[in-house]
Amino acid sequence: MITCVIRYHIDPTKKDLFVQYARNWGQAIPRCGADLIGYFAPHEGSSTRAYGIYNIENLAAYEAYRARLSADPLGQENYAFAQKERFLLREDRVFLKLASAPHGRQAP
Known about the structure:
Blueprint: E1 2-10, H1 15-32, E2 35-40, E3 49-56, H2 59-71, H3 73-85, E4 88-96
Antiparallel strand pairs: 1-3, 1-4, 2-3
Helix pairs in contact: 1-3
């Protein structure tokens, strides 16, 4: 399993548009095959950083998922919405592997 973390630099005056964008992904991403952890909008601290985080089996599964997402009507609509409204200033994507498992208290 790998985790995709998308870091967005958003226009702070258009945070509500990012929230709408995030809610749309909340429907489309799971339907297209990724395990969505969530989208996170600025609350305190930076007003320009936001995140999208999901798990996927591997990079091959990611490529298939991206193809499904690109063909998904809501996915297409959301891509166009972001282009039209221009609230995303930058987007960076990184794939990570969980290194701390298992979590919890270990025996002494």
